[in-house]
Amino acid sequence: MRLRIFTYAVLVAGCLFAIFPYFLTVLTAFKGPGQLSETMPWEPGLPPSTAAFERLFNSGFGGYLVNTALVTAGITLGQVVFAILAAYAFARLSFPGRDALFWVYLSTLMVPPVVTMIPLYLMMQKLGLVDTWAGLMLPTMLGTPYAIFLLRQFFRGIPADLEDAARIDGAGRVRTLLSIVLPLSKPILVTVTTLAVVANWNSFLWPLIITSSEDKRLLSVGIALFKGEIGVDYNAVMAGSLIALAPLLVLFIVFQRFIVRSVAVTGLK
Amino acid sequence: MLRRAPRRTRRIGGGRQAAVAYALLAPSLVGVLGFLLAPVVIVLVLSLFDWKLLSTPEFVGLANYQRLFTDSDVWHSLLVTVYYVVICVPGTTILSLLLALLVDRKLRGMKYFRALLVIPWMATPVALGLVWSWIFDPGRGALNQFLGVFGIDGPAWLSSPVLAMPSVAAVHIWQFAGYNMLFFLAGLQNIPRSLREASSLDGASPVAHFFTITLPLLRPTMLFVLITNVIGSFQAFDTIFVMTEGGPGDSTEVATYLIYDEAFRKFDFGYASTISVLLFAVVLIATISQFVYFERRTTYEVSG
């Protein structure tokens, strides 16, 4: 009994520590300039003020939000679809060079993205894609080796008999993939999609390098450039951070059950 | 990890199947070979050139590497990076393991505690960096105001060369402890029930049981967590970019930041590539040595 109370106490403390920056962000974002200096960080500003948000949206922040949502959706869709195709080929088809190629894919997991930044930038320059949507999305949207690896492992666990039956009935590879394999793969698809959404929404270094015009600016770049552009206007900075943090937070609360379960799947067995 | 494909599928029609396979692989081949592997080759080639913006690339052999070895900025930033890794990796690993042991127990509402602890992982690092900069703000920041309640005069966390790095690293640990907890939790739950409960019979203390039974059985998870965290923290950039910009002085100028600075602010692509090669080599050595270390001590099935 004492042990249980102790466990709960530590857990509550840990969880408070994990989420207090979110509380402070919400509180600060809804304070007016005067309230910021009059109240303690952990006190709400009364009445709540949306001045900071108005200031942000007047300076083009709505556009960043739309850009980020669209780019995240586009890259994620590409990554998931192309990873499914590749993973299915690796898991189910036999073709010359398959095993060697799979090892090549796996080995690229060890390449730190920052190492590829300069060559990618120069490649995009050669292709005339600097400061374009294509340049922003192309390098990552064709499938990530990690997603391909996770999907391949899962596909291999699905009994081949199920597919053979469908194929005897005359279904092609693509039909089998769509009607047999994918419906059985929901858990891993949730995992792969979640990881992709989080990574793409949060992505910063590549957008910072490859885009320069304001109409292609993403949230992450927008708020990072804040400090320089509006100085230490903490209300606006916190409001901007909240706009960047909130969508994933909502997504997490809605899909919390699946996400917690699915992230653990990605560890080595 | 790789098993041969079942023979019978081969009989269905080798050539056609290969054609289908390569059609399915085509997009990812462009992505992996073109945008992951080719850049590695290109960065190696670039490191042999003197190339600043607008100038024509000029082959200089190993001159960039000579410069690298005598460049105290590079070695300082490598040291700073290692310092960051040395705080972040053990900090995150130990904290996440402790959290996993805590949430492994069957108690009411446990799944909500688990979920809450994972939330920081999803936070946009740049936004998070700004939030924490404000928490660490010496005047009006939450931390020093909070300390002030107890009459403590808090330091200027991010503008002190001594405190800046631990502060930035603390944010990394805060962000990833809950996430890594999930891997340890999965590892703990894979341990057979008979082994989990053995201690109560043989009378061993829980601590002894943890070190002699649980920890060795968690080795595969440990390897995964260590490797992903080492690779991840060697590449720290986003939070540092918004929290300290490498400062004060150059006390938080990690390797990634230096590469960014050389390439995209000074436009010295050749030399920046050389530093990238160095960073890649360091990450590779760190990763492989962990594999070797663990390989010697465990035999487990990596395949799925």
Textual characterization of the structure:
Chain A: Pfam families: BPD_transp_1 (PF00528). Chain A: It is a multi-pass membrane protein. Chain A: It is found in: Cell membrane. The complex is a heterodimer of chains A (269) and B (304). Chain A is mainly α and 269 residues long. Chain A has a domain of 180 residues: MetI-like (MetI-like fold, Orthogonal Bundle), CATH 1.10.3720.10. Helices cover 77% and strands 0% of the residues of chain A. Chain B has two domains: 46 residues, no CATH class; 234 residues, MetI-like (MetI-like fold). A two-stranded antiparallel sheet of chain B has the order 1-2. Chain B is an all-alpha fold. Chain B is built from 14 helices and two strands, in the order H-H-E-E-H-H-H-H-H-H-H-H-H-H-H-H. Helices cover 73% and strands 1% of the residues of chain B. In chain B, strand 1 and strand 2 form a beta hairpin. The chains are: A mainly alpha (269), B mainly alpha (304).
Number of helices of chain A: 14
Radius of gyration of chain B: 24 Å
CATH architecture of the domain at 60-218 and 245-265 in chain A, please?
Orthogonal Bundle
Number of strands of chain A: 0
Helix content of chain B: over 70%
CATH architecture classification name of the largest domain in chain B: Orthogonal Bundle
Subunit arrangement of the protein: heterodimer
CATH topology of the domain at 60-218 and 245-265 in chain A: MetI-like fold
Give a short account of the largest sheet of chain B. Answer: 2 strands, antiparallel
Helix content of chain A: over 70%
Distance between the termini of chain A: 34 Å
Order of helices and strands of chain B: HHEEHHHHHHHHHHHH
Shape descriptor of chain B: globular
Biggest interface, CB < 8 A: A-B, 106 and 100 residues
